[in-house]
Amino acid sequence: MHLPRIFPLLVLGASLLSGCLDSVVPSHDAAGTGSGSGGSGGAADGAGIEEPALFSMLGAAGYKASGFTQINTTPYISSLDATHIRMFVSNDAVDAYKAVNPDAAATTGPAFPVGGIIVREASDANGNLMAITTMVKREAGYFPEVGDFFFGVLDPKGQPVSEAGVLEWGKVQMCAGCHEPRQAAGFLFGVAPANRH
């Protein structure tokens, strides 16, 4: 038995069961490394990057635990990149997320709560995981251009993706560019009702 590997998962599971997402998603660091330029040093263990607990949770697939709801059990084809998508949302944010429809310009549902987490698994046609992306609603003023969302992109091994030497982790401009036009929908796309099965 590898107790050192199991113990963090047990702690994470207990945190999610108790609904205490603050222990999973701590406040961003004061150094402001959320600019998407956290560098690559220490990425393998989450050291030196913003939101290390989030990084660890995603790498361990903690979003498949009881603190999250899977929005669609059958993958749907992404219109963005033709990958097969599964969406997971932290339980505190499910109602707000389900109120968003990609075919509607706005949402009339509840506001997405601070600390709420969205995880998107992208797989190929054979079910092989290709990437994990995440959004976390942060405190007011974190990234106002996109509703104060934190963004992260990880490879299938759970490592943050780097583009031109810059980690796609934090205030990722590439992600923001897609989400900015969705302001009236809370900067979210959601999952079409027909794909929620």
Short synopsis of the structure:
The chain is an alpha+beta fold and 197 residues long. The chain has one domain (3-195): Chalcone isomerase (3-Layer(bba) Sandwich).
Distance between the termini: 37 Å
How many strands in all? 9
- How many distinct domains? 1
Strand content: 15-25%
- CATH A-level architecture: 3-Layer(bba) Sandwich
What is the CATH first-level class name?
A: Alpha Beta
Structural class comes to alpha+beta
- Fraction of helical residues: 10-25%
Q: Which stretches are poorly predicted, pLDDT < 50 over at least 5 residues?
A: 1-42
Mean pLDDT: 81
Report the sheet with the most strands, covering strand number, pairing sense and barrel closure.
Answer: 7 strands, antiparallel
What is the CATH third-level topology name? Chalcone isomerase
SSE ordering: HHEEEHEEEEEEH
Shape: globular
Based on CA atoms alone, the radius of gyration comes out at 16 Å
DSSP helical segment count: 4
Care to describe what's here?
The protein is an alpha+beta fold. The chain has a single domain (3-195), classed as Chalcone isomerase (3-Layer(bba) Sandwich). The chain is built from four helices and nine strands. The protein has helices at 3-17, 52-59, 94-98, 173-179; strands at residues 68-70, 76-77, 84-90, 117-123, 129-137, 149-154, 162-163, 166-167, 169-170. The strands form two sheets. Strands 1, 2, 3, 4, 5, 6 and 9 form a seven-stranded antiparallel beta sheet that branches. A two-stranded antiparallel ribbon has the order 7-8. The radius of gyration is 16 Å and the shape is globular. The termini are far apart. Mean pLDDT is 81; it is low at 1-42.
